[in-house]
């Protein structure tokens, strides 16, 4: 009696092993610019999130500020003192601490605005592309109106109006929420247009038609079947818009309609430092500007790499 060959059971690979052997990981390893940007962005985010561990001073604690240590230059210049590595501002606030805490505020607002824009854009894009008709026309015309006005002007208008409507005691506490709302008001349109275009293609395919025939609810079809097939361009757009959101927040704070001086973001620090630029205190504006540039450039480099890595025509 001959032995029947037993089938070899399939070995289930972990998610980490699948990622390690994937094309996108291979592309990432072969791109020095993407690796460098990822390392820089990781360091910037970790030092911002863990600012209390790295910062010599809490810039929000007025009791910790020492006016006799104000306007100190960076430590490598004459007159610099330890632990004020990057110097101090006119209030005696350690500039390195202010930059780390300010980066945390900027990153938090960038992440929150992208999350809100994604939630609104994905929902409206799916509804518009799946149902079409008058609903599609109304949503897309609203998007056209918002896109016809420069984003920064809408953000300034929303931020200024919201601050006037809020009670006086809530204005500083609600500054971050107002900025997220102002940035998200126009950012959702790009996601909605992208998802709408993908949804209009996917809804005509056989698997969607089959789901409709067996009476699968439209909500489940959009969430379980159509949405996963639209995530590639959305992921690229979200990465690039993260850097753009940080830049818009910095612009609003620089113009005085963003974060207050009591909770400074990078844009607020640049605005404060710009007032003393011609007084010889160049470090107050230079180092926050460098931090902002590194943060935005790192995000944009990663976004450009991701766009190329996920493009099937370039594989």
Automatic annotation (TrEMBL):
Bilayer topology term: Multi-pass membrane protein
Source organism, top-level taxon: Bacteria
SUPFAM superfamilies for the chain: MetI-like (SSF161098)
Listed InterPro entries: BP-dependent_transpt_permease, MetI-like, MetI-like_sf, OppC_N
Transmembrane segments: 34-55, 105-133, 145-162, 174-195, 234-260, 280-306
Residue intervals of the ABC transmembrane type-1 domain: 103-303
Chief place where the protein resides: membrane
Matching Pfam families: BPD_transp_1 (PF00528), OppC_N (PF12911)
Family (UniProt): Belongs to the binding-protein-dependent transport system permease family.
Descriptive protein name: ABC transporter permease
Source lineage: Bacteria, Pseudomonadati, Pseudomonadota, Alphaproteobacteria, Rhodobacterales
